[in-house]
Amino acid sequence: MWITLHQVHVQGDGHSMRGITTVEGATTPGASAPGRATGALAAPLATMVAVVTVVASTLVLARYDPALVGERSTTPWLSFVELAAAAAMVAGVWSVRATHPLASTGLAVATAGSLLPLWAASPWLPEPVRAGVLAAAPFTVAGVAQVALGWPTDVAPLARRAGRAVYVLAGAAGLAHLLGYNPFADPGCFRTCEDVAPLLGGLVTTQTAVTIASLLTLVAAAVATAAILAARTARTPRSVTGAVVVALGGLAVSAAMRLADWGDALASVTRFTPEPFAVALVGAVVWGIGFRTVRTRAAIDRLAAQLSDPATALGRSGGAIRGVQFLVPDDGRWVDAAGHDLHDPPASGNNLVLSDASGPVLRLLLARRADQDEVLAGLTPATRLALRNAQLAAVASARLTQVQASQQRVVATSDAERRRIERDLHDGAQQRLVSVAFHLRVALAGADPATAERLTGAETRVRDALARLRRLAHGIFPSVLASEGLGAALDELVAASDVPATLTVRVDDVADAPAMAAYATVVAALDAVEYPSATTRAHIALVQDGGVLTVRVEVTAGDGIVVAPDCIDAADRVGALGGSLTRSDRARDGTMTVAAVIPCGS
Amino acid sequence: MRVVVADDVMLVRSGLARLLSDAGVEVVGEAADADDLLRIVALDQPDVAIVDIRMPPTHTDEGLVAARRIRQRYPRTAVVLLSQYLEPRYAQRLLADQPGGLGYLLKERVSEVAVLVDALRRVTEGECVIDPTIVARLMQRRRPDSPLTLLTPRERDILALMAEGRSNAGIAGELGISERTVEAACAQLFRKLGLEPSPDLNRRVLAVLTLLRS
After folding, report:
1. Taking CB atoms and an 8 Å cutoff, what residues of chain B touch A445?
2. Which of A158, A159, B63, B127 has the fewest CB atoms below 10 angstroms from its CB?
3. Is 0.90 surpassed by the pTM of this model?
């Protein structure tokens, strides 16, 4: 019955509401599925007991015989009070079921313990059952105690042990009552007085059974009260502790009086039975706190909604506000919440400009009929804060977009320049060297042997220069990338590289900038192979999926030497496009991975 | 043999024409751009057109376009393309459809006039000539699905030399083996590449095509 539920939630009662604290519930080994099931069933069962009790007592009222007043405790007003008490208990059980499951279960037990004995007055139940339900009363003490002891989400060990002890005592009291109590032998019997032979009727007299049960109930109440006062924490509201202690006191007094009144028929019949009202008090207090928690959470949810999306939250205000636009300081540009430029300023409509010390910050676009003063009055501090945050976020993303655009321009300009240099090298220097080679060859034809030797030497050097020039030009700009596309350029790259590589390319049509970024990524990874060996391998994979191009190069060093790749150029290109480049360190088996995710906007 | 030389750089053009004349090849015309070239080809019907890939106005692939047009309109005129790029892709693009009667050489290779004259002779005979450097590049590729993976190293060497435009005798001389051995190896090679028996010349072209498409 002492159940712990594992759950994470925000502590929301009045006492701990200084900041937002996330508390993880303590778990007890062994308190698993069965315990959880009992916890889940407690509230519905308690509700059922309460409903049946109220219905039954109303039916008894319908058969009410005024002649019996004074002998039976069922009077019309008591029946209505009973209804109110039952409602308070059930409301309390349900209101904290999610936030304080242990306390809720305790309250459910107390509800059953306080209401079940009332069933003894139902003439429709068989006699043994009527006598038996009276044994449920001691559990009221245990249930009420659990409300206070189990309130904190992390129950202290002392509270846990005390709770178990109280349940054991209550169980023993209930058992003594069940096995030894014969209503007919009780001079003060009042809900039922039929002769029911209890199981151990021959061993213990009814008086002994009542004495044992009452004493055990008293002890349980005392133990519970002591434990509650000893294990008190700041997390348990004082109102809960107070209500529980008062209720326990009432229950203890009731048990003591039952003991003291033994044999006094009149006193027994007219005695007030406080159990349902004690539990109702606790239920009402718990319900009040649960209600407050729900309200606080709703307010927090509203605040969160405002903070995360003030435009939408404002838009809910009856359509008075149609949108929000933010001003980028020192720039004069207006942007939307995502930081995108607003090219067409709003028609000179009903706009409310909000400013701070430095000048205008944002403007609210209002519906034509909206009253500006009313909107101003409706802006709570939380909304203002939220709008301020939204402005900061919008400005930050607008600036980031600007920086990215500038980075892209830098890359594009540098590429254009590289391309021009590459062409100049090919069409200028290289052509001239080629013609020099031709003319050397022509001169060679008619030269004497000594000159021929010198000419041949010169020709060799020219050729060497041509080969170097070609490599240099290619390094400056891969012309095949621009003319034939990414797949062809990578084919060439792999063919020209000393690193044995596999190439998988699944791309449709990639624009120049993302293609260059992808190419640079592969170049960086392959360049990391300083000395390839026969066992060195590179796996290159490019996959275009929607608007994203994913590049992944995995290099296994084998017997070769792989150094950390220089990814600065590639990272700049990828970053300019808003993508990301990651590079794994060399693993123990010498595998190094360079991966890039490049938006290619198709 | 009558040739036309097309290159927008005058120094290169004249140097090349001079080299060829000295080697006994008749240069019937020099062209500075693609239009010039096409006009001369139409007028003189030369045996071979030697064409620079980059020519005005855009300096990108005007030479390639002109070469295609020549092969389509004047099949009797073979074309040798000169490139400053070590980009097999260009060769592939040009030669992929029908490589017969086409050559692709790096420009500086041309100063070895014997190689050039040999290439000219071969393309006029309908063969296909690819620069050794580019062939070496192509052979380096190791595509798992390529039929080239079925070849032995010796057969790969033979295919490479074939792509360079060497005859069986030339291949035999280069590898230091007998011509009979080369012939046998060629038969094996054609079989591995799935080429049906047909006139030898045609099969050689197809074998080079396989190399290009790998």
Report:
1. 22
2. A158
3. no
